[in-house]
Design goal:
The chain has about 210 residues and is mainly α. Helices cover about 45% and strands about 5% of the residues.
C-alpha cells in the first residue's frame, strides 16, 4: 500500500530519534499543517511544486495567535518534512524526497521593537479572551511562545509564587526561575479555575489549522 503523508508523519513521531529530541513538541505542532495540507496524498506522488504551493499557502494563513505564519516558521515545517522523507527513503518506504530542491523562504531576522506598557495594554484590549493571558505572560516574563504553550502545572509553584523552566523546556537549554508579579499571580489563579482534569498543560485552547 502506498505510504501517505499521514502515515509517514505518524511513523516518524513514534521513532526514538524523534521522541528523544528536545524539540519533539515543536515537531508535533509543525507536523499538523503538513498533515492537514497533504492529507492522504501518496508520498511518492508529491512534487517539489506542491511543496512550494504549501509554502505559499501557509504564508497566507493565520495561526492561532491571529498573525500570519512567518517565513521562518514555514521553513521549519518544510525542514521537518524533508527530514521525515529522508528517514523514510533510508527505510525503503518512499522513493524520493520532494523537498530536496526546494528553496527556503527568506527570513527576516530583525528583532521586533519592544512595546511600551501603554502600547501593550492597547494591544491586549484587542485580543480575544483566550490570548490575553498568553500575551501577558510573554510580555512580563520574556518567555517564548513554545515555552508558554508547553508550560505544565507541575512547573508552577503557586505557594511561593514562581515557575521553573528546565533545560529541556528552553530554546537555549538553560534553566530559569521566574517569580510572579501581581499580574502573573492573577493569570495563574484564573487559569487554575479552569484547570483540565485530562492533562497538565496550563493553557488549553485548541485550534485546528484550516485547509
Amino acid at each position: 500500500m502506498a505510504k501517505t503523508v499521514v502515515i509517514l508523519m505518524a511513523w516518524y513521531l513514534e521513532l526514538p530519534v524523534a521522541k528523544n529530541k528536545r524539540s519533539y513538541n515543536t515537531d508535533l505542532e509543525k507536523s499538523k499543517p503538513l498533515v492537514t495540507y497533504f492529507g492522504k496524498m501518496s508520498a511518492d506522488k508529491i512534487k517539489p511544486s506542491m511543496v512550494e504551493s504549501f509554502q505559499d499557502r501557509m504564508l497566507k494563513l493565520k495561526h492561532r495567535f491571529g498573525s500570519k505564519y512567518r517565513p521562518a516558521t514555514v521553513n521549519r515545517m518544510v525542514a521537518l518534512m524533508k527530514r521525515v522523507f529522508n528517514l523514510a527513503i533510508r527505510e525503503d518506504m518512499v522513493l524520493k524526497n520532494p523537498c530536496w530542491k526546494i528553496t527556503m523562504l527568506k527570513e527576516d531576522n530583525k528583532r521586533d521593537r519592544i512595546l511600551s506598557g501603554e502600547e501593550f495594554d492597547r494591544l491586549v484590549a484587542e485580543l480575544p479572551a483566550y490570548l490575553k493571558p498568553i500575551a501577558s505572560l510573554g510580555y512580563y516574563t520574556g518567555m517564548r511562545r513554545g515555552e508558554i504553550l508547553n508550560l505544565r502545572w507541575k512547573k508552577v509553584n503557586m505557594q511561593e509564587g514562581y515557575l521553573d523552566l528546565e533545560p529541556e523546556d528552553t530554546k537555549n537549554s538553560e534553566p530559569r526561575r521566574i517569580y510572579f508579579n501581581d499580574i502573573l499571580w492573577d493569570i495563574f489563579k484564573r487559569a487554575g479555575k479552569v484547570r483540565s482534569l485530562k492533562h497538565d498543560y496550563v493553557f488549553t485552547y485548541r485550534h485546528t489549522c484550516p485547509k
